[in-house]
Model the fold of this input.
Amino acid sequence: MRRSLRTDRSHTHSTHRAAQVAAAAVIAGALTLTACGGSDDKKSDDGKSGASTGDTAGGGSVSLPKLDGASLEVAAVWTGPEQANFKKVLAEFEKRTGAKVTFVPAQDPIINFLGSKIAGGAPPDVAMLPQVGAIKQAVEKKWAKPVGPDAQAQLAKNYSQGWQDLGKIDGKQYGVYYKAANKSLVWYNTKVFENAGAKEPATWKDFLSTAQTVYDSGVTPVSVGGADGWTLTDWFENVYLSQAGPEKYDQLAQHKIKWTDPSVKDALTTLAQLWGNKNYIAGGPDGALQTEFPASVTQTFTGGDQPKAGMVFEGDFVGVNIAETKAKIGTDAKVFPFPAVGDKAPVVSGGDAAVVLKDSKAAQALVTFLASPDAATIQAKLGGYLSPNKSVANSAYPNAVQQSMAKALIAAGDDFRFDMSDQAPQSFGGTPGKGEWKDLQDFLKNPKDVAGTQAKLEADAAAAYKG
Done:
């Protein structure tokens, strides 16, 4: 899953608190099960987290209309296994309704992509918006259409109020959050850790010590997907949230304090302790800047006990890429929470929402399906995915680690905090080669230039928020 959306719209304080504790709870749950080795892959849930939907073929919990002859296009930035798995969900919708659904690969920034499609008179029927601000942007441009009563009924039945509210603009429901992400996890190659005698670190100081231990064993400690600037924003956000605290986090997310604030200097200085040590980064900074996110994961779990790196930081969606390497989550690949820089470990979440762009019976039926446990259950079984839908049976997730993450996410209810860059204007927090993505890529290349990086971040943020 890529990341999220940016706009100058600001969510309520309670919404910002949202993804924080959800992710924290997710992490805690994941650790509980990885400590047990994650071997209970087939273990069923006790049923308390939601009713089982079972196999969706031939029915399911949601009623859908017959749509024989209808054609739909769904646009998303998803690639690789993530796209392939979502297509299986769309195939089930086709099977039940008779509609024909075409997946349209989109590019970042997706709002620009959609704008070109709309200008050409050929918008997709539904778009999966990977940034929380995109929904408001689509509404402001009068592209988005409110979801219908059937989808709203599924949301009311299956989603906590917090996840429903994320898709509302001015009291109207425009987005259906189909996918959630916990973006505060560090995944590691267990063979590397065992050979090095390394332990899961709880603090940033311990993390750097663990990195040194792994390096001393002959393996480069950390893989960074620096070619994708969004991964670097996630690094910054986790360090900043833990070190500066939630109040400052909210202020910076809304640009109520400047990027020249001392708290930003502190976070960048902390990041430089890792990014500035060439021994700790696979390929060094130059190599990291040429490594895309998927490769940053796969190179950590291929090569036996001599991979290109021992650890990789990113969200729960890493599981899809790990699966490509044949490494088994819970055995070959384990996870620990992003280490605490300040008093508490950071917890950052994101998500992807379905938004109707062409108001038709077929488009409304699709978002209704995506709001149901039937759709989410299909993708949950395939791995590398978390749903905010509380009616998805926990046993649908394919291994103990993901079952733990999913259960904790649902148990967190409305208490969570959202990705900071996903709240910013797209031109600052969501555009490849520009704004925060580019500024942090430059910082990865030259982590000694803290003041210069702050100045560039502030100049870019000021222009974006003003616009």
About this structure: The chain has two domains: 13-39+64-182+350-411, 185-337. The first strand starts at residue 71 and ends at 76. The chain has a mean pLDDT of 87. The radius of gyration is 21 Å.
